[in-house]
Amino acid sequence: MKKNIPISILELAIITEDSNAKETFEKTKALAQFADELGYKRFWLAEHHNMAHVASTATVILIGYIASQTKNIRVGSGGIMLPNHAPLIIAEQFGTLETLYPNRIDLGLGRAPGTDGMTAQAIRKDFYEQSQRFPQNVAELQKYFSKDNAAENVRAFPAEGTNVPIWILGSSLDSAALAAANGLPYAFAGHFAPKLMYQAFQYYRDHFQPSQYLDQPKTMACVNAIVADTDNEAEILATSLTQMFLNLIRNDRKPLQPPVESMDGVMSEQEHFHVNQMTACSFVGSKNKVEAKLKQFIEYTKIDEVMITSPIFNQEDKMKSVRLMKEVIDNI
Q: Distances from the Cα of 78 to the Cαs of 10, 63, 71, 186, in angstroms?
Protein backbone atom coordinates (compact mmCIF):
# COMPACT_ATOMS: atom_id res chain seq x y z
CA MET A 1 0.00 0.00 0.00
CA LYS A 2 1.42 3.37 -1.03
CA LYS A 3 2.00 5.94 1.71
CA ASN A 4 1.36 9.05 -0.43
CA ILE A 5 4.04 11.01 1.40
CA PRO A 6 4.23 14.64 0.18
CA ILE A 7 7.62 15.83 -1.07
CA SER A 8 8.97 19.38 -0.98
CA ILE A 9 12.13 21.35 -1.79
CA LEU A 10 14.42 23.45 0.37
CA GLU A 11 16.43 25.81 -1.82
CA LEU A 12 19.45 27.77 -0.55
CA ALA A 13 19.98 29.63 -3.85
CA ILE A 14 23.65 28.65 -3.84
CA ILE A 15 25.74 30.43 -6.46
CA THR A 16 27.83 28.03 -8.53
CA GLU A 17 31.43 28.70 -9.51
CA ASP A 18 30.49 29.87 -13.00
CA SER A 19 27.50 32.04 -12.03
CA ASN A 20 26.24 35.08 -10.09
CA ALA A 21 23.27 36.12 -7.95
CA LYS A 22 21.05 37.23 -10.86
CA GLU A 23 21.52 33.96 -12.74
CA THR A 24 20.96 32.05 -9.50
CA PHE A 25 17.60 33.76 -8.96
CA GLU A 26 16.61 32.77 -12.52
CA LYS A 27 17.64 29.16 -11.84
CA THR A 28 15.70 29.22 -8.56
CA LYS A 29 12.59 30.46 -10.37
CA ALA A 30 12.94 27.77 -13.04
CA LEU A 31 13.37 25.07 -10.39
CA ALA A 32 10.31 26.28 -8.47
CA GLN A 33 8.19 26.32 -11.63
CA PHE A 34 9.36 22.82 -12.53
CA ALA A 35 8.62 21.55 -9.01
CA ASP A 36 5.18 23.16 -9.24
CA GLU A 37 4.46 21.30 -12.49
CA LEU A 38 5.68 18.02 -11.02
CA GLY A 39 3.40 18.29 -7.99
CA TYR A 40 5.86 19.08 -5.22
CA LYS A 41 4.04 20.41 -2.17
CA ARG A 42 6.33 23.15 -0.84
CA PHE A 43 9.24 25.27 -2.02
CA TRP A 44 11.05 26.80 0.95
CA LEU A 45 13.92 29.27 0.97
CA ALA A 46 16.50 29.60 3.74
CA GLU A 47 17.78 32.73 5.47
CA HIS A 48 21.57 33.14 5.43
CA HIS A 49 23.81 36.18 5.84
CA ASN A 50 27.42 37.16 5.08
CA MET A 51 27.86 34.19 2.76
CA ALA A 52 29.04 35.49 -0.60
CA HIS A 53 27.78 32.44 -2.46
CA VAL A 54 24.36 32.01 -0.82
CA ALA A 55 21.86 34.34 -2.49
CA SER A 56 18.87 33.89 -0.15
CA THR A 57 19.79 36.75 2.20
CA ALA A 58 16.60 38.78 1.64
CA THR A 59 14.45 35.71 2.17
CA VAL A 60 11.04 37.39 2.29
CA ILE A 61 11.64 39.20 -1.01
CA LEU A 62 12.70 35.96 -2.68
CA ILE A 63 9.63 34.13 -1.30
CA GLY A 64 7.38 36.80 -2.80
CA TYR A 65 9.18 36.57 -6.14
CA ILE A 66 8.90 32.76 -6.29
CA ALA A 67 5.24 32.84 -5.22
CA SER A 68 4.53 35.32 -8.04
CA GLN A 69 6.16 33.03 -10.60
CA THR A 70 4.36 29.80 -9.56
CA LYS A 71 0.75 28.65 -9.39
CA ASN A 72 -0.01 25.92 -6.86
CA ILE A 73 3.09 25.05 -4.86
CA ARG A 74 3.28 26.40 -1.31
CA VAL A 75 6.17 28.85 -0.86
CA GLY A 76 7.77 29.65 2.45
CA SER A 77 10.76 29.97 4.70
CA GLY A 78 13.05 27.17 5.75
CA GLY A 79 13.47 29.19 7.73
CA ILE A 80 13.18 32.72 8.98
CA MET A 81 15.73 33.07 11.80
CA LEU A 82 13.41 34.74 14.28
CA PRO A 83 16.06 36.18 16.67
CA ASN A 84 17.21 38.35 13.73
CA HIS A 85 13.81 40.06 13.48
CA ALA A 86 11.06 41.71 15.48
CA PRO A 87 8.00 39.41 15.52
CA LEU A 88 5.81 42.36 14.49
CA ILE A 89 7.79 42.86 11.26
CA ILE A 90 7.67 39.15 10.38
CA ALA A 91 3.90 39.14 10.98
CA GLU A 92 3.45 42.15 8.69
CA GLN A 93 5.64 40.62 5.97
CA PHE A 94 4.06 37.17 6.00
CA GLY A 95 0.58 38.59 6.42
CA THR A 96 1.24 40.58 3.26
CA LEU A 97 2.51 37.49 1.42
CA GLU A 98 -0.52 35.46 2.50
CA THR A 99 -2.85 38.25 1.36
CA LEU A 100 -1.16 38.34 -2.04
CA TYR A 101 -0.92 34.53 -2.41
CA PRO A 102 -3.78 33.04 -0.33
CA ASN A 103 -3.30 29.55 1.13
CA ARG A 104 0.17 29.23 -0.41
CA ILE A 105 2.51 30.69 2.23
CA ASP A 106 4.37 28.80 5.00
CA LEU A 107 6.38 30.33 7.84
CA GLY A 108 9.17 28.09 9.10
CA LEU A 109 10.97 29.53 12.12
CA GLY A 110 14.48 28.83 13.39
CA ARG A 111 16.48 29.96 16.42
CA ALA A 112 19.99 30.09 14.89
CA PRO A 113 21.41 33.28 13.31
CA GLY A 114 22.01 31.76 9.88
CA THR A 115 25.46 33.33 9.94
CA ASP A 116 28.57 33.92 12.06
CA GLY A 117 28.58 35.60 15.47
CA MET A 118 29.93 38.95 14.29
CA THR A 119 27.31 39.22 11.54
CA ALA A 120 24.56 38.19 13.99
CA GLN A 121 25.60 41.15 16.15
CA ALA A 122 25.55 43.42 13.09
CA ILE A 123 22.00 42.28 12.31
CA ARG A 124 20.81 42.71 15.87
CA LYS A 125 22.86 43.83 18.88
CA ASP A 126 20.77 41.79 21.31
CA PHE A 127 20.79 38.64 19.17
CA TYR A 128 21.85 36.38 22.06
CA GLU A 129 19.08 37.66 24.33
CA GLN A 130 16.52 37.25 21.54
CA SER A 131 17.67 33.69 20.84
CA GLN A 132 16.96 32.92 24.50
CA ARG A 133 13.51 34.47 24.06
CA PHE A 134 12.69 32.31 21.03
CA PRO A 135 9.65 30.60 22.64
CA GLN A 136 8.23 33.95 23.78
CA ASN A 137 8.82 35.52 20.37
CA VAL A 138 7.06 32.61 18.64
CA ALA A 139 4.08 33.19 20.96
CA GLU A 140 4.16 36.93 20.21
CA LEU A 141 4.17 36.20 16.49
CA GLN A 142 1.20 33.86 16.87
CA LYS A 143 -0.64 36.61 18.74
CA TYR A 144 -0.12 39.08 15.89
CA PHE A 145 -1.61 36.57 13.43
CA SER A 146 -4.69 35.93 15.58
CA LYS A 147 -8.03 37.70 15.24
CA ASP A 148 -7.97 38.28 19.01
CA ASN A 149 -5.14 40.77 18.56
CA ALA A 150 -7.69 43.27 17.17
CA ALA A 151 -8.24 44.49 20.74
CA GLU A 152 -4.54 45.24 21.35
CA ASN A 153 -2.76 48.58 20.97
CA VAL A 154 -0.07 47.09 18.71
CA ARG A 155 -1.45 45.33 15.67
CA ALA A 156 0.12 43.70 12.60
CA PHE A 157 -1.64 44.62 9.37
CA PRO A 158 -2.60 42.75 7.24
CA ALA A 159 -1.60 39.70 9.30
CA GLU A 160 -4.58 39.42 11.65
CA GLY A 161 -6.64 36.33 10.90
CA THR A 162 -4.51 35.23 7.92
CA ASN A 163 -3.68 31.88 9.57
CA VAL A 164 -0.22 31.51 8.03
CA PRO A 165 0.96 28.01 9.08
CA ILE A 166 3.94 28.21 11.43
CA TRP A 167 6.50 25.40 11.51
CA ILE A 168 9.22 25.03 14.11
CA LEU A 169 12.53 24.11 12.49
CA GLY A 170 15.49 22.67 14.32
CA SER A 171 18.18 20.09 14.84
CA SER A 172 17.89 19.48 18.59
CA LEU A 173 15.57 18.33 21.35
CA ASP A 174 14.97 21.98 22.32
CA SER A 175 13.18 22.67 19.05
CA ALA A 176 11.27 19.39 19.36
CA ALA A 177 10.13 20.37 22.85
CA LEU A 178 8.95 23.79 21.71
CA ALA A 179 7.03 22.41 18.73
CA ALA A 180 5.43 19.72 20.90
CA ALA A 181 4.43 22.10 23.71
CA ASN A 182 2.82 24.53 21.27
CA GLY A 183 1.11 21.92 19.09
CA LEU A 184 2.97 23.07 15.97
CA PRO A 185 4.37 21.06 13.04
CA TYR A 186 8.06 20.19 13.33
CA ALA A 187 10.71 20.05 10.60
CA PHE A 188 14.18 18.63 11.29
CA ALA A 189 17.35 19.79 9.53
CA GLY A 190 18.63 16.35 8.60
CA HIS A 191 20.46 17.72 5.57
CA PHE A 192 23.31 19.06 7.69
CA ALA A 193 22.75 17.99 11.33
CA PRO A 194 21.12 14.55 11.36
CA LYS A 195 22.64 13.28 14.60
CA LEU A 196 19.63 13.80 16.89
CA MET A 197 16.88 13.38 14.29
CA TYR A 198 15.33 10.15 15.53
CA GLN A 199 15.42 11.18 19.20
CA ALA A 200 13.94 14.60 18.35
CA PHE A 201 11.03 13.12 16.39
CA GLN A 202 10.34 10.62 19.17
CA TYR A 203 10.45 13.34 21.84
CA TYR A 204 8.14 15.53 19.77
CA ARG A 205 5.57 12.75 19.34
CA ASP A 206 5.74 11.66 22.98
CA HIS A 207 5.20 15.19 24.31
CA PHE A 208 2.90 16.64 21.65
CA GLN A 209 0.05 18.79 22.98
CA PRO A 210 -2.93 19.21 20.61
CA SER A 211 -3.65 22.83 19.73
CA GLN A 212 -5.91 24.98 17.57
CA TYR A 213 -3.33 24.47 14.81
CA LEU A 214 -2.89 20.68 14.97
CA ASP A 215 -4.73 17.84 16.66
CA GLN A 216 -1.88 15.36 16.17
CA PRO A 217 1.88 15.49 15.54
CA LYS A 218 3.13 16.50 12.08
CA THR A 219 6.75 15.89 11.13
CA MET A 220 8.97 16.62 8.17
CA ALA A 221 12.62 15.69 7.59
CA CYS A 222 14.86 17.68 5.28
CA VAL A 223 17.46 15.48 3.58
CA ASN A 224 20.02 15.72 0.79
CA ALA A 225 18.88 14.01 -2.41
CA ILE A 226 20.88 13.48 -5.59
CA VAL A 227 19.38 11.06 -8.10
CA ALA A 228 20.70 10.15 -11.56
CA ASP A 229 20.38 7.35 -14.11
CA THR A 230 23.14 5.32 -12.43
CA ASP A 231 24.61 5.07 -8.95
CA ASN A 232 28.02 6.10 -10.27
CA GLU A 233 26.69 9.20 -12.01
CA ALA A 234 24.85 10.28 -8.85
CA GLU A 235 27.95 9.72 -6.71
CA ILE A 236 29.98 11.95 -9.03
CA LEU A 237 27.31 14.68 -8.90
CA ALA A 238 27.34 14.39 -5.09
CA THR A 239 31.02 15.41 -4.94
CA SER A 240 29.80 19.03 -5.22
CA LEU A 241 27.84 18.48 -1.99
CA THR A 242 30.88 16.89 -0.34
CA GLN A 243 33.11 19.78 -1.41
CA MET A 244 30.55 22.28 -0.06
CA PHE A 245 30.66 20.74 3.42
CA LEU A 246 34.43 20.33 3.29
CA ASN A 247 34.83 24.03 2.50
CA LEU A 248 32.44 24.83 5.35
CA ILE A 249 34.61 22.86 7.78
CA ARG A 250 37.74 24.59 6.46
CA ASN A 251 36.05 28.01 6.55
CA ASP A 252 37.04 28.29 2.90
CA ARG A 253 34.26 30.31 1.31
CA LYS A 254 33.79 29.24 -2.27
CA PRO A 255 30.88 29.03 -4.69
CA LEU A 256 29.44 25.57 -5.34
CA GLN A 257 32.18 23.62 -7.07
CA PRO A 258 31.81 21.41 -10.16
CA PRO A 259 31.75 17.65 -9.53
CA VAL A 260 34.95 15.60 -9.67
CA GLU A 261 35.53 11.94 -10.46
CA SER A 262 36.65 11.14 -6.91
CA MET A 263 37.27 12.77 -3.51
CA ASP A 264 40.09 10.33 -2.72
CA GLY A 265 43.05 12.08 -1.16
CA VAL A 266 41.25 15.43 -0.92
CA MET A 267 40.23 15.17 2.75
CA SER A 268 42.08 14.25 5.91
CA GLU A 269 40.64 11.46 8.08
CA GLN A 270 39.27 14.02 10.52
CA GLU A 271 37.65 16.07 7.74
CA HIS A 272 36.20 12.91 6.22
CA PHE A 273 34.66 12.02 9.59
CA HIS A 274 33.06 15.44 10.05
CA VAL A 275 31.74 15.64 6.48
CA ASN A 276 30.26 12.16 6.81
CA GLN A 277 28.56 13.14 10.07
CA MET A 278 26.97 16.21 8.49
CA THR A 279 25.88 14.43 5.29
CA ALA A 280 24.80 11.12 6.86
CA CYS A 281 21.20 11.76 5.84
CA SER A 282 21.81 11.85 2.09
CA PHE A 283 20.08 9.83 -0.60
CA VAL A 284 22.46 9.43 -3.52
CA GLY A 285 22.09 6.98 -6.38
CA SER A 286 19.82 5.63 -9.08
CA LYS A 287 16.05 5.60 -8.62
CA ASN A 288 16.06 2.00 -7.41
CA LYS A 289 18.78 2.58 -4.81
CA VAL A 290 17.25 5.81 -3.51
CA GLU A 291 13.76 4.31 -3.40
CA ALA A 292 14.92 1.40 -1.24
CA LYS A 293 16.83 3.68 1.15
CA LEU A 294 14.08 6.29 1.34
CA LYS A 295 11.39 3.68 2.02
CA GLN A 296 13.39 2.37 4.98
CA PHE A 297 13.99 5.92 6.21
CA ILE A 298 10.30 6.85 6.11
CA GLU A 299 9.30 3.64 7.90
CA TYR A 300 11.95 4.16 10.59
CA THR A 301 11.37 7.86 11.24
CA LYS A 302 7.56 7.70 10.73
CA ILE A 303 7.70 11.15 9.13
CA ASP A 304 4.66 12.70 7.47
CA GLU A 305 6.55 14.65 4.81
CA VAL A 306 9.94 14.65 3.06
CA MET A 307 11.80 17.81 2.06
CA ILE A 308 14.86 17.57 -0.15
CA THR A 309 17.75 19.86 -0.90
CA SER A 310 19.94 19.08 -3.90
CA PRO A 311 23.20 21.05 -4.19
CA ILE A 312 23.97 19.96 -7.75
CA PHE A 313 26.32 22.06 -9.89
CA ASN A 314 24.62 21.80 -13.26
CA GLN A 315 21.04 23.08 -13.53
CA GLU A 316 19.94 20.36 -15.98
CA ASP A 317 21.32 17.64 -13.69
CA LYS A 318 19.53 19.27 -10.76
CA MET A 319 16.19 19.42 -12.57
CA LYS A 320 16.57 15.80 -13.63
CA SER A 321 17.33 14.76 -10.04
CA VAL A 322 14.23 16.61 -8.83
CA ARG A 323 12.11 14.83 -11.47
CA LEU A 324 13.52 11.41 -10.64
CA MET A 325 13.02 12.05 -6.91
CA LYS A 326 9.35 12.80 -7.49
CA GLU A 327 9.05 9.50 -9.37
CA VAL A 328 10.72 7.76 -6.44
CA ILE A 329 8.37 9.19 -3.81
CA ASP A 330 5.31 8.49 -5.98
CA ASN A 331 6.29 4.82 -6.01
CA ILE A 332 6.67 4.51 -2.23
A: 7, 10, 20, 11
